[in-house]
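S.,

Sequence below, as promised.
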Amino acid sequence: MFVNGITEIEMSRQVGVAFGEVLQTPNYTTGVAFGTHTRVSFLNTGSMHSEPDFDHCRLLILFGSQKGSLSGHDTMKSALAMAKARERGMKVVAFDPICSPTASKADQWIPLRPGTDGAVALALLHVLLNELGVLDETFLARQSNAPYLIGASGGYLRDAQSGKPLVWDGADKSAKAFDDSKLIKPALGGEFEVNGESCRPALELLRAHIAQFTPERVEAISTVPAETLRQLAREFAAAAQIGGTVTIDGSEMPLRPVCSFADSRGSTCHTQGVWTGTAIQLLNVVVGAVDVPGGAISTSIVGPGERLRVRASADGIVLFGVQRPGGESQYPDQRARVPETVQLHELFPVGKQPRPMFGLALLDYPELIPYQLEMLIILGSNIVMSGADPRRIVAALEKIPFVVALGDRLDETLECADLIIPTAQGLERLDFPVNRLEGWVTGRHWYFTARLPAVESPPDVRHTVDIFLEWAERLGLRPELNRLLNGQLGLTESERLAEDGRYNNREIVERRMRSMFGADHDLGWFEKYGLVAWERHVSERYPRGVLKLPRVPVYFPEIVERGKELKEILDGLGVSWDLSSYQAVPAWSGCWSHKTRQSDQLFLVNYKLPFQTSTTTQYNPWLAELSQRHRLALYVTLNRSTAAARGIADGDEIELVGTNGYTARGVARVSECVHPEVAAVASCFGHWSHNQPSGGAAGVNFNAFVPLDVRGMEMLSGDFDQCALVTIRRVGRRQGSIFKSVQR
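The prediction came back faster than expected:
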């Protein structure tokens, strides 16, 4: 089995995949809890991710996101674009339990109870659709499944001959196939009778469902005042400018200058997080602000030359990826089946690579794995510290007879390995491409960049690609690996790897450069110029403004069917999981933490710093010193009233105790800029491995307080619920200026 970290970029991953295929192992996965929001994006738009269109957006609502504050991916471009948009007058509203660097610069910071973003989004949606009656009828009728007729069973009503979903044509009062060329006026509301069966459009069912999320009810759930919710919904409706157009590069298209945005773990990595992200995205959908100027822009549905990276299901709904022979199918074509992999991804038909199940499967469901896992190869991923409950992950690793770890520094995961193989770190590596067109990048240009080594690696340190190539050579798998790489890397005929050829990373990188951009674009060219860039066509920037694309969903009947199929599989395996999330409309019923929280417990949340990245940079002595002097880095931030009620003053040493028995000590920072029910820490400090720099063990490891338990999983995506509850007590007054951490 392979676990590949986020530090291993595209070609390393592809070579790793190819090596796993020639080994004929079913187990290959990337990273740990990367984010339910990617599953949300695939499900709703067919894209890996989406970004606000900073060029035209006038109102940006952030849910648990620090977009624009040098955090996350594409940081510098996003920060610059955010700054320019603010100068042009874009308003930013931030829903966040803490006043993060982004929220502190927003026009409006709205603190809310952690894990309630989904309820808030559904309340805003309710106000838009049911109280204000604001919607983009043209977009919903022609580019979504909002008009599809839903029968008593909850599924699509279908044409008897073609099997296609039906819609009601208000022009001649009859039901027609959704793609009928004679369809004139698709109905979005009402109740109709077709072949003796009563039915309603999908949007009508969504409206009825979200009516329960009134601002008054959601105020009690989230602590966000009902009037604040209504005020923001009114602003969103007005700013959407439904019916407005703009001409860009000679093409007239809709202008919808609003964006509701979720990113990474902040809002969607909770129970029912897929539905939370969907509710946030539906705010864009109902006003038509999807892949048009001003709205939420998908990063990976159209490539250069207007090459589509999405396809339509039989029902006309957008699907991620172009289907290839033997390729993995995606929702709704993917079906639950008896597990073959250690991460049990077969039991998550709506999800994609449920990585956290790796530890749970080994500890709690070993009987579901049809073999004994003999060996684990970890590539640049600190899975012990960056997932949840380190002690349980360590216990899972101890069940594997042989663990091999490839990495560029000692960390908590490498200390669990039986064999450590040193690999080149960032300043020693040659990688191409670094920015992937189908990944995170939006904007006015396509660009491919090369990562060039600044220094040579020590003699015994190698690039991960070279390690894979040598392993394949020693195992007699070189011909099979070379054949696979020719296809996976898209090498042209003149650059193809010979089956019996021996290559290294540098040679393959250069062959790929020439394959992609011509014989003159060799390594020397990239060493001189660094990147290839060209301007995107307007249809590649705003695909739904120009191109005809498959429809986006507002109603998800296939999820109900996948749930029924999954229950049959689980019943046969003797497993009982909560499948209540398998609904056709966005659901919210709260996280485990909302249902079990005691009066003395606080929600522990984490936030990002612009000078630290996940668990990978704290070993840097300069950054460690900077963290010790930074007012946001190593403290535990408490609301002033919360701290006073516990007898805690600014600068006191405090102890945190989690529901899973994990404890840590930190230094209190008292502030009004945090929700009263919250304790906030920067992620991800509190290292405990050997050879840390001075102060490297300081701070708190948020992930350690996240329980690794299936009852806290997001059951559609297979990701962690990032809820953590802690009790806090004062230990004493901090002595001196150096932070110390005691973590157990």
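The two ends are 29 Å apart (CA to CA).

Coffee later?
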